[in-house]
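Pasting two entries for a bug report.
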Amino acid sequence: MGCKQATIAVHSGANIDEQYGCVVPPIYLSSTYNFTGFNEPRPHDYSRRGNPGRDVVQQVLAELEGGVGAVMTSSGMSAIHLLCSVFLKPGDCLVAPHDCYGGSYRLFDSQSKRGAYKVIFVDQSDEQALKQALAKKPKLVLIETPSNPLLRIVDIQYICGLAHDVGALVVVDNTFLSPVLQKPLDLGADLVVHSCTKYLNGHSDLIAGAIIAKESSIAEEVAWWANNIGVTAAAFDSYLLLRGIRTLSARVLLQQNNAVAIVDYLQQQPQVKKLFYPGLKTHPGHEIAVKQQQGFGAMLSFELDGDEQTMRRFLSALKLLTLAESLGGVESLISHTATMTHAGMSAEARAQAGITDLLLRVSVGIEDSQDLIADLDNAFQAAATR
């Protein structure tokens, strides 16, 4: 029976315990498993390679994204690094967004400087620049849409077509929307990557990543390398992620509703110089978002009109929005991009990506939207006071 996303999130992997009839899968903390006899291993022999609890959550991830297999890793960055380790050799080329997540940018930049592979950072919404990059015959193309932190939108299906024409595999970072709001594999991508730390877990108490593949051969290769280099996730982390996924749809949809209310408020706020949210009809890529997404998500960013002192007063006055990195949790977070999530990028690289020193990124939580708006309103009043 083909079920909807919310049903898959709640029921996949449930009621599978045959020993005691546990509705929730048990946590298997054993690091090793006995052999039934000489050269007769069980399905699991060592938890780095496979853990029953991790098996369950990987199955759920694959079902949610419409893939054939998934690997849960120790962090979102280890998932990105694993992909590059599997598919790129010295001399191979990676095409990545020029405004990608700061941690990804730092990894690609540092690895390319060491000669692990070559990287081309490009504005993927610039068709001519993108085609010039693809003419270099990359082995891997990373798409991040909406981008972090400016929420830029690119056409997944179109870029996948171009990339496949030059023999490249395409991986889409789907962290910002989750499979509730976007299904990259259905749009032509070969792989999807997540920082499970964010929306998939949703409670800011877990560091984990995931890779989901469309084809079995790719899924098997990624799983082999994950075991080989030891980046697979732990048993308790697998339990926490599965627990978070159960409420994924409910959380994401409520967060999105709250974000829409906050965006409506920010549009009327004179101290907001620029507002970035794909749901706005004036947002670049809005029409593409309408076509390939099932919603506009709960991430937004804006530039303050003022200077550093204005920003300091604004941030200091907030009571409900917490100044912190990360995103996707039930609590609302705000971050200063230049000194936090993208501090690993040079000032020149940030400027080229359009990231200014007064840009703030907001991850909207599940609080009452009117309370969040009141908190923002109080902070804007404080920011205006000299």
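Entry 2 (this is the one that rendered wrong in the viewer):
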Amino acid sequence: MDRYSFLRQLADSWALLALVLFFVGMVLFIFRPGARRLQRDAAESIFRHETRPTPPDDKEGR
């Protein structure tokens, strides 16, 4: 078996399986219990200083 055929077979089987498992893992990570608060905080972070500018000594805004 030459190198190309071996790598092609490896990519068709094990690499595909690894990518599918990675995708399923990412979906489960996003929808895990307790992630809602972190996701809401990240989504609303751009509106955190909407009514007044960030103070100059605030390290969070940098």
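Dev reply: Rendering is fixed now. As a check, the viewer should reflect this: The chain has a mean pLDDT of 84.
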